[in-house]
Write a structure and sequence with these properties.
ABC transporter ATP-binding protein; Rossmann fold; four-stranded antiparallel beta sheet; 10 strands; six-stranded mixed beta sheet; alpha/beta; 271 residues; binds adenosine-5'-triphosphate
C-alpha cells in the first residue's frame, strides 16, 4: 500500500474535470517478480474503461493498486485527485473482487443491511438505509430473491450481491474485477446495461476488467495489457482503425505481434 504518514501536507484535490485515474512510471513488485512495469495511462471520469488482457498479465494487481490494497507500489498513481490509498477515498470507491465477498448464512437483504449499517450508521438513518438497500438489490435484479440465503445462490447471483454492496454508497469510481465471469449471455448483457446506466445517470467512472475480448466492444475506452505493461490506451474504434482490424480481439493480437517483433529487434541490436 502507498504510504500516508500525514494528511496535513496533502496537495489540494485536483478539479473534477481531471482524469479519474492517472498513472505515471507506475511499478509493482509481488514476491520476487516485477508484476507491473512503468505504466502510464489515464482513465477519464464518467466513462466505462475496460481493462483487458490475458490471465496473469496484471489486471487484478493494477486494480488493487488503484483501490489502495496493494503493497510495493512505486511511481505516481492518483485516484479522484488524491494519491491511491488515501483515507478519504475509501467511501468514494466501490471495489468488487473476483471472489464474491458475501456472508453465506445471511439473506441478500441481511448482507446489504450489514454493509449499509457500516457505511451509514445510526437510528436516524434507518429509513435511508432501507431505501438504499432496496434500490441496490433492484439495480442488480435480485428483488425476487431478497430473502434467500446467500449460501443457496448461484455463482452469478452471489457476484451480483457483491456488486450490490459496492453500489450501496453510490461511489464515484467503481472498480470491478471480472464481474461477468461465469455468467450466461443474458445476464452479461443485463449487467453491461446496468454499468452503462450507472455511468450515464450518476456520472460514475467504471473500470472493469475482463479477459473476454467481445466485452471490449461495450466500453468507451480500453486499456489493453500484456505481461505487466500497457499495450494500448484508446477507444475501441481508434484501436480497430489504427491496426486495420475488424474486432478489438484482432487489434489486440496485432499489437501483441508488433510488441514481440519490437522486442526481438531490440534483442538483436544488443547482441
Ligand atoms: N501474492 C502473489 N505473490 C507473488 N506473485 C503474485 C501474487 N499474486 C499474483 N502474482 C503474480 O502476479 C502476476 C499478475 O497477477 P494478477 O492476478 O494481477 O493477473 P490478472 O491479469 O488479474 O490474472 P487473471 O485474469 O487470471 O485474474 C501473475 O504472474 C501472478 O503469478
Amino acid at each position: 500500500m502507498m504510504n500516508y504518514s500525514s494528511t496535513r501536507s496533502d496537495p489540494p484535490e485536483t478539479p473534477d474535470t481531471a482524469a479519474a485515474i492517472r498513472a505515471e512510471s507506475l511499478n509493482v513488485v509481488r514476491g520476487p517478480r516485477q508484476v507491473l512495469r512503468d505504466l502510464e495511462f489515464t482513465v477519464p471520469r464518467g466513462q466505462i474503461t475496460g481493462l483487458l488482457g490475458p490471465s496473469g498479465c496484471g489486471k487484478t494487481t493494477l486494480m488493487r493498486a488503484i483501490v489502495g490494497t496493494q503493497a510495493k507500489v512505486t511511481g505516481t498513481l492518483d485516484v479522484l485527485g488524491r494519491p491511491a490509498g488515501h483515507p478519504t477515498l475509501r467511501t468514494r470507491i466501490g471495489y468488487v473482487t473476483q471472489a464474491p465477498s458475501v456472508y453465506d448464512d445471511l439473506t441478500i437483504r441481511q448482507n446489504l443491511d450489514y454493509f449499509a449499517a457500516i457505511l451509514d450508521p445510526g437510528h436516524t438513518a434507518a429509513d435511508r438505509r432501507h431505501e438504499n438497500v432496496t434500490r441496490a438489490i433492484a439495480d442488480v435484479d435480485l428483488t425476487s430473491h431478497t430473502d434467500a440465503l446467500a449460501g443457496n445462490l448461484s455463482g452469478g447471483q452471489r457476484s451480483r450481491v457483491s456488486l450490490a454492496v459496492a453500489l450501496l454508497g453510490t461511489p464515484e469510481l467503481l472498480v470491478l474485477d471480472e464481474p461477468t465471469v461465469g455468467l450466461d449471455p443474458v445476464l452479461r448483457r443485463d449487467l453491461w446495461n446496468l454499468f452503462h446506466d450507472i455511468a450515464a445517470s450518476r456520472g460514475a467512472t467504471l473500470l472493469i476488467s475482463s479477459h473476454v475480448m467481445d466485452e471490449a466492444e461495450r466500453c468507451h475506452r480500453l486499456l489493453l495489457m500484456r505481461e505487466g505493461q500497457i499495450l494500448a490506451d484508446d477507444t475501441p474504434d481508434a484501436l480497430r482503425t489504427r491496426t486495420g482490424s475488424e474486432t478489438v480481439e484482432a487489434a489486440f493480437l496485432h499489437l501483441v505481434d508488433e510488441a514481440v517483433a519490437a522486442a526481438a529487434r531490440a534483442k538483436e541490436t544488443t547482441r
